[in-house]
Design goal:
By secondary structure, this protein is an alpha/beta fold. The protein has helices at 3-16, 23-36, 49-56, 60-73, 111-118, 142-152, 169-182, 198-209, 224-232, 251-255, 278-291, 314-317, 349-360, 365-376, 379-406, 431-440, 471-497, and strands at residues 45-46, 76-79, 83-86, 192-195, 215-220, 236-243, 246-247, 261-264, 294-298, 323-328, 340-343, 410-411, 420-425, 446-447, 461-465. GO terms for molecular function: DNA binding; DNA-binding transcription factor activity; pyridoxal phosphate binding; transaminase activity.
Amino acid sequence: MDQRLVVEIIQRRFEQQPEGGMLRVRLYLAIRQAILERELTAGECLPGTRSLAGELGLGRNTVLWAYDQLLAEGYLVGQSGTGTFVSGAVRTDKAAPPKRLIGTRREGISKRGMLISVNASSSRIQSGAFMPGVPDVEHFPFKLWNRLIARYHGVEHSSLMQYGHGGYGPLKVALAEYLNVTRMMQCSPRQIVIINGSHQAFDLCARMLCDHGDRAWLEDPGYWGARNVLRAAGLNVEPIPLDERGIAPTDEHWSATPPRLVMVTPSSQYPTGTVLSLDRRLQLLERAESCGAWIVEDDYDNELRYHDHPVASLFGLSQSRRVIYLGTFSKVLFPGMRMSYMVVPEDLVEAFTLGNAELYREGRLAEQAALAEFIDAGHFTAHIRRMRAIYQERRDALHEVLDSRLGGLVHSPLTQAGLQSLYTLNGPADDVQLAAEALQRRIVTRPLSIYYDDPSRAVPGLNLGFAAVPVEVIRTAAAQLAEVIEAHMTARRRLGQRPAA
């Protein structure tokens, strides 16, 4: 096929993508769709990245990211010195189109569905060096856990096989006592709502506290998952920049259009690890009270800290009770558990309990009963202590290798909590391309720039998870990653020094 025709196909598909998503994702979806629908078939040569970028009016890095993602997923293959080609993974013979259902209002997914798809940042890869946010499940006491689960699965506990409403009472009692000791929080068991993961909490807060079009503030950089859930719920998400003391809204932010929700990770900001300073905490609570905003405190990994002085929660500090606290078991036990909890102010208890039951239908009471016993018997705190020591050794191994190999090329304060370390890059770098280059060496990283909602503020860096990687693997993989970073930054520096044509 003529290269001009290939460009026209890609351009048409690109223009058909809904606006509002990241350009690199829209381009990736456009090329993938053209391949899946056999408009671009096996062996077809794609234009060079510079050429396509010029034709579409995009940055070359945008095209590089789309190509690298398609290469990683097998839609494209690269042949050294000859170009990039459509792979043979998709059959070239066209299957018969499915019959269109009579009476359908429209084809395809909704605008909301397209917005979710275009902005999705979740990865099919959930393991290996250095996937962030993933705990080690090899050290979890599954034999003990299975015995506890089996104890509550049976006729004698038939009530636990029914739908739930508000969560299992003894688990809420255990959590209230635990939070009082570890997070300096005074709350009653009735204020705790058991949910299936933090994303459900984000969605429940949006639906119970906000109307369509209300404003929500999120840290920038921040957790893409919260951003996408709130946007899907119809909220107007505004990125608020960070500094060395945490989220930093200005007086202009507060006086313009005050938010209805402010979502923060104050004990260990994700992904930077910054701790929100006391003066900022007090200011945030005072301003939220004055303008009627609700603060959602996502305390996703505070149990996994590597110092002796845990930071008190915003919920515990608040006298106005404008804070909803979120905690999770996915990071400290295992991700597949999909169990989290919310602590809500007294005057929201009834509404949130009913909303949770009505929107999501509760259950899994037997697992909640097993978890309550796991906590009451001391297994929970013992597991956390054991994993802290393991994770700290792995964190130190990662920093030792990268800091010694890369020196001034990177900057990373020693991680004080959590499952990952953030490395910013000091010098010319494209972190999306760098992550793709690392993936070719089977090293998984998350580029820092994808955590930014405002690309003008983006700083290049890599988010590296160490928790689920044994020390010996960390040392080998970190040495390989250091080679990739050195080569990438050297190449970028030479490119910058090359005289203009």
